[in-house]
Write a structure and sequence with these properties.
- Keywords: Acyltransferase, Lipid biosynthesis, Lipid metabolism, Membrane, Transferase, Transmembrane, Transmembrane helix.
- One of its GO terms (molecular function) is 1-acylglycerol-3-phosphate O-acyltransferase activity.
- This is 1-acyl-sn-glycerol-3-phosphate acyltransferase.
- It is a single chain.
- The chain is about 40% helix and about 15% strand.
- The chain is an alpha/beta fold and about 280 residues long.
- It has one domain: Glycerol-3-phosphate (1)-acyltransferase (3-Layer(aba) Sandwich).
- The strands form two sheets. Strands 1, 2, 3, 4, 5, 8, 9 and 10 form an eight-stranded mixed sheet that branches. The chain has a two-stranded antiparallel ribbon with strand order 6-7.
- The chain is globular, with a radius of gyration of 19 Å.
- The N and C termini lie far apart (about 50 Å).
């Protein structure tokens, strides 16, 4: 690590953030567990409140473009570059995640995933596709929003991997008298303490390949504030496309374009609160 990178990290800041994060999490675990057990409406609202606070605690400034579909259920389709995506998306979307089955067995984080009523899927077992589709469909029928990462793995954050189409089969489901709403979402880490991250700094957010979780998390909490841009793209339904592959390809293109614009810093639509140059403000 270079001297510049060392300057970005503070062990004292990291220790404080971890202590506050753990205290906050341990405080809410029994509340959410009780809400899930009793099937209280709070079980839907509390995770978003929890994640929004966690984002502030660990220094994530989540900035939103576009408009989230509020009338559910909605299947949100997002790129995936880090475990931090859970906190980022969880802070702006009231819903549950679709995650690989291994997550259920992770210490601590597996418990948090279960408390958010995550749908666990075995991505490599073709024989399980129909059952998993039915499990996801049942949650959507119940009115729950779900967040799916169809890349199948996390990337380096600078690009979007091809989307796997298997779980898009659930998009053919009808909710009452209408087709299921599908909304693509782009998530991109763009700035570190106000400085554009670029390829060099983006691995401070992205967690992929053979990176170890604990050292990466420790580096994250030591750093200054990171800006993460979330862009909600126009919603679609399966009826807009000739096949689920065409739907998957459309979602991949929309998400990839959002990531590319955010990475380049030349997005055609400014974030709320951003200054608009005078020559663009007059119409």
């Amino acid at each position: 690590m270079t001297a510049t990178h060392r300057a970005l990290g503070s062990a004292g800041r990291g220790a404080l953030r971890l202590a506050v994060y753990l205290g906050w999490t341990l405080l809410l675990i029994p509340v959410q567990a009780l809400a899930v057990w009793l099937k209280l409406p709070l079980r839907h609202r509390l995770p978003r409140f929890y994640h929004a606070a966690c984002a502030r605690i660990i220094g994530l400034d989540v900035r939103v473009r576009g408009r989230r579909v509020e009338q559910g259920p909605v299947l949100f389709i997002s790129n995936h570059s880090s475990y931090l995506d859970i906190t980022v998306l969880g802070s702006v979307i009231p819903g549950s995640f679709v995650a690989k089955s291994e997550v259920a067995g992770w210490p601590f984080f597996g418990l948090l995933a279960k408390l958010q009523r995550t749908v666990f899927v075995e991505r490599r077992a073709r024989s399980e596709v129909h059952r998993q589709r039915d499990d996801i469909g049942a949650r959507l029928d119940a009115g729950d929003n779900l967040i799916l990462f169809p890349e199948g793995t996390s990337s380096d954050g600078n690009r979007t991997l091809p989307f796997k189409t298997a779980l898009f089969a659930v998009a053919a489901r009808r909710i009452g008298d209408r087709p299921l709403t599908v909304q693509p979402v782009s998530v991109t880490a763009t700035r570190l303490d106000g400085i554009p991250m670029g390829i060099a700094f983006r691995p401070f957010y992205a967690w992929y390949g053979d990176m170890d979780l604990a050292p990466h998390l420790w580096q994250v909490v030591k750093l200054g504030g990171m800006t993460v841009e979330v862009e909600f793209h126009p919603p679609v339904t399966i009826e807009d496309f000739p096949s689920r592959k065409a739907l998957a390809d459309h979602c991949q293109r929309a998400v990839a374009q959002g990531v590319a614009h955010a990475v380049s810093g030349r997005h055609p639509d400014p974030l709320p609160g951003d200054a608009v140059p005078a020559d663009q403000g007059a119409h």
